[in-house]
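Bumping my old thread because nobody answered last time. Still need a sequence for this structure:
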């Protein structure tokens, strides 16, 4: 897997010269929110926040994986029927591509193989995750850069009164993943600074449940409520 150095600059050059590949598998380190990176990249191509030539594909909140009847997959297949409106290419960004079910992955194989030059599709997956070998073999592998710590620290996060308040705030933010991570880090940091090892054990147990709860289809409110202590 290659890191192209200034990845954004290189990809923009390829866009201007009509040399972008049809499919990219973009792995990212834990510190990086791929959607934040993608929105920054696409802003250099179009100033429109909701450009008709750009499609964002996400899992439903209660979906552990993409399925054939997932809304995002249906939108993708419909999007493929139209040529670019005003950009040189139509862009598709698929978040959590490692959670494409085997059935969906096999269904999309033909799409990846026959994707026309009018499209550029990005599959986003964590650096440690793998997709089906047949899917990975049809994509150009790239590695998104680490988010700098000072960028993370610079986020001016509001006070959250409850998990419901936090989730509502996250839905309106371009930095959802980063803000969620920073909230959890700050929560654990406050517990650690207290020096109370009993509370720290509880906090670490909460972190364990948080990281596992997505596998059990728990809502985001339920997962994040673990970090709102009884003392509040």
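Sorry it took so long. Here it is:
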């Amino acid at each position: 897997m290659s890191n192209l150095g200034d990845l954004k600059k290189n990809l923009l050059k390829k866009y201007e010269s009509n040399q972008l590949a049809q499919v990219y598998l973009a792995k990212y380190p834990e510190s990086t929110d791929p959607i934040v990176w993608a929105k920054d990249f696409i802003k250099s191509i179009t100033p429109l926040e909701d450009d008709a030539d750009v499609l964002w594909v996400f899992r439903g909140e209660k979906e552990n994986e993409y399925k054939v009847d997932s809304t995002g997959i249906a939108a993708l297949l419909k999007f493929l029927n139209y040529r670019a409106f005003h950009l040189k290419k139509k862009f598709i960004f698929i978040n959590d591509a490692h959670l494409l079910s085997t059935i969906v992955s096999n269904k999309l194989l033909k799409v990846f193989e026959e994707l026309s030059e009018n499209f550029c599709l990005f599959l986003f997956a964590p650096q440690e995750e793998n997709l089906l070998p047949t899917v990975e073999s049809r994509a150009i592998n790239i590695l998104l850069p680490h988010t700098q710590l000072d960028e993370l620290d610079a986020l001016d996060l509001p006070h959250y009164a409850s998990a419901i308040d936090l989730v509502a705030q996250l839905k309106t933010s371009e930095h959802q993943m980063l803000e969620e991570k920073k909230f959890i880090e700050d929560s654990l940091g406050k517990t650690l600074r207290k020096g109370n090892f009993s509370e720290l054990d509880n906090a670490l147990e909460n972190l364990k449940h948080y990281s596992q709860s997505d596998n059990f289809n728990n809502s985001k409110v339920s997962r994040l409520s673990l970090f709102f202590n009884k003392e509040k």
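The radius of gyration is 19 Å. Let me know if any region looks off to you.
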